[in-house]
UniProtKB/TrEMBL annotation:
GO terms for biological process: base-excision repair. PANTHER family: FORMAMIDOPYRIMIDINE-DNA GLYCOSYLASE. Its EC number is 3.2.2.23. Residues 5-111 form the Formamidopyrimidine-DNA glycosylase catalytic domain. This is DNA-formamidopyrimidine glycosylase. It is an enzyme of class 3 (hydrolase). One of its GO terms (molecular function) is 8-oxo-7,8-dihydroguanine DNA N-glycosylase activity. Keywords: DNA damage, DNA repair, DNA-binding, Glycosidase, Hydrolase, Lyase, Metal-binding, Multifunctional enzyme, Zinc, Zinc-finger. It comes from Beutenbergia cavernae (strain ATCC BAA-8 / DSM 12333 / CCUG 43141 / JCM 11478 / NBRC 16432 / NCIMB 13614 / HKI 0122). The keyword Metal-binding applies. SMART domains: Fapy_DNA_glyco, H2TH. It catalyses: 2'-deoxyribonucleotide-(2'-deoxyribose 5'-phosphate)-2'-deoxyribonucleotide-DNA = a 3'-end 2'-deoxyribonucleotide-(2,3-dehydro-2,3-deoxyribose 5'-phosphate)-DNA + a 5'-end 5'-phospho-2'-deoxyribonucleoside-DNA + H(+); Hydrolysis of DNA containing ring-opened 7-methylguanine residues, releasing 2,6-diamino-4-hydroxy-5-(N-methyl)formamidopyrimidine.
Length: 302
């Protein structure tokens, strides 16, 4: 099952952080995986001594706004990060002191740790990333729009979803519907897992071409998008960061459930595999009972 945090989990992480970090001062910050830090000006050390003034979500990105130091008119930087496929945020009510070896894991000792942040009340958080392919991204910027992928985001399906907007976005080019829903420049925050769930709820094939969508198709897809995301956000809301991944898995109807029974019709959930991901679907609900060809070596849906 795809592990990437998507809109509902990132939304819940933002809510979780907002309750704990707004009004708190950053007293120390260390980068453990230097490749995760994508910017150099302002430096990471510029965050120390600043107070967190807000936490916002942009698609799958989280954005911590930081106030000026004292009365200094030296700008208000943002700590912006994307957890990528295998990243996560781990909260600690009691952090090891930053001055101790345990507080500053670096190099090989860092393991999955990418970034560690200490707050003035003794708590803090780690950004971690499992596996060898490191894609977690941390930016320190004057404005989140300075981060290219944020500047190019499409509309947010939680706050800006209408049938007209979704239809216009999907019909900008002719591509498979699964790939279009995952395209962050069209719709922000939906990834591999929730695109499977939305298409199942809408009873549509992942390989439907966007130019073929009728107004009725778009209306059905809009309703399904709203239904799936609203339910996932509600399920994730208020949960501790450590429980969000399990909550995501439990809520899935088809994604990550190859070989299990479709909860709607009782057919078996099937899978199509690609080089670096897979999709799950129900043939009875979505493709008129016809199984899709397994395109394991295909370049489609990249």
């Amino acid at each position: 099952m795809g592990r990437m945090p998507e809109l509902p989990e990132v939304d819940a992480l933002g809510e979780f952080l907002r309750e704990r970090v707004v009004g708190r001062e950053i007293v120390a910050v260390h980068i453990a995986q230097i490749g995760a830090l994508k910017t150099f000006d302002p430096p990471l050390t510029d965050l120390v001594g600043r107070t967190v003034t807000g936490v916002e979500r942009h698609g799958k990105w989280l954005d911590l706004a930081l106030g000026r130091r004292g009365d200094a008119d030296d700008g208000e930087p943002h700590l912006v990060f994307h957890l990528a496929k295998a990243g996560w945020l781990r909260w600690k009510d009691e952090m090891p002191p930053a001055s101790t070896p345990a507080g500053r894991p670096m190099g090989r000792r860092a393991g999955p740790l990418a970034l560690r942040v200490w707050l003035d009340d003794g708590a803090g958080f780690d950004l971690t990333e499992a596996g060898t392919r490191k894609r977690l991204a941390v930016h320190v910027v004057g404005s989140p729009e300075e981060v290219g992928p944020i500047a190019s985001l499409g509309f947010d399906p939680r706050s800006e979803l209408t049938a007209e907007r979704l239809g216009a976005a999907l019909r900008t080019r002719n591509q498979q519907l699964k790939g279009a829903l995952r395209d962050q420049t069209l719709v922000a925050g939906i990834g591999n897992a929730y695109s499977d769930e939305i298409l199942h709820a809408a009873r549509m094939s992942p390989f439907t071409l966007t130019k073929s969508l009728t107004d009725d198709d778009v209306a059905r897809l809009t309703d399904a998008t709203r239904q799936v995301l609203d339910a996932a956000v509600a399920a994730a809301s208020g949960k501790p960061a450590a429980e969000l991944k399990d909550a995501k898995r439990r809520g899935m109807a088809v994604h990550g459930r190859t070989g299990e029974t479709c909860p709607v019709c009782g057919d078996v959930v099937r899978e199509v595999s690609f080089a670096d991901r897979s999709l799950q679907y129900c043939a009875t609900c979505q493709t008129g009972g016809v199984p899709l060809a397994d395109r394991r070596m295909s370049k489609l849906l990249r």
